[in-house]
Specification:
This protein has helices at residues 16-20, 56-72, 88-98, 107-124, 145-157, 168-179, and strands at residues 2-4, 11-13, 22-25, 30-34, 37-47, 76-85, 127-138, 161-164. With 182 residues, it is α+β, with helices and mostly antiparallel strands. The strands form 2 sheets. Strands 3, 4, 5, 6, 7 and 8 form a 6-stranded antiparallel sheet that branches. The protein has a two-stranded antiparallel sheet with strand order 1-2. The longest helix is centred in the middle third of the chain and has 18 residues, at 107-124. The two termini are 17 Å apart.
């Protein structure tokens, strides 16, 4: 099921179900068999907080909320950090969408400006970092996902936007991204 990649012993996995021992991928979770137990795995993407420029009071408030969150955690979790090459086209489209270029009347100048940014990004070979919290819950335990959602949403209070990764395709794509690095 694995295909060798040029240049060494690295392999590209095609069958993630065997690699991760997946029973099924649902819209909100991945059901895996871990150590003989059926376990639901929920994944949340986190937008980190930029602490630079915050006052000491703001930093202290963030730490207080974070400590509260850790006291309320009654489930297994892991932090997943993924580095990936910046998708320049996606970045440029988002950049254009988020910035108002209506003041630039000269269309040729605007296109040249965007093209220059794109070329610099490609030349710099920039990587982006994605942060996730991965939560494992034994399938038949009485832990309600809503209570987990409520604990995770406390991160929003400190400025970390959290979003549950939902959808079979998104979950499957994330699993592939974790193992296929090239």
């Amino acid at each position: 099921m694995c295909k060798k990649v040029k240049g060494g012993n690295l392999k590209k996995y095609k069958d993630i179900t065997k690699l991760y021992n997946i029973k099924c991928i649902d819209e909100e979770y991945i059901l895996v068999n871990y150590k003989g137990l059926d376990t639901k795995v929920y994944i949340y993407k986190i937008q980190p907080i930029v602490m630079l420029g915050l006052s000491e009071n703001e930093k202290e408030n963030i730490l207080t909320v974070y400590k509260e969150l850790l006291r309320q955690v009654s489930f297994d979790f892991q932090i997943l950090i993924l580095n990936s090459k910046l998708d320049v086209d996606s970045y440029i489209n988002t950049y254009i969408y988020q910035n108002d270029f209506s003041q630039i009347e000269n269309m040729q100048l605007k296109n040249k400006y965007i093209q220059d940014i794109k070329e610099k990004l490609i030349k710099e070979n920039i990587y982006e970092i994605d942060y996730y919290i991965v939560i494992s819950v034994v399938y038949n335990m009485n832990i309600n996902i809503n209570s987990i959602d409520n604990v995770i949403k406390k991160l929003d209070k400190v400025g970390c936007v959290t979003t549950k990764v939902c959808g079979k395709k998104k979950l499957r794509d994330l699993l592939y991204k974790c193992i296929n690095k090239g």
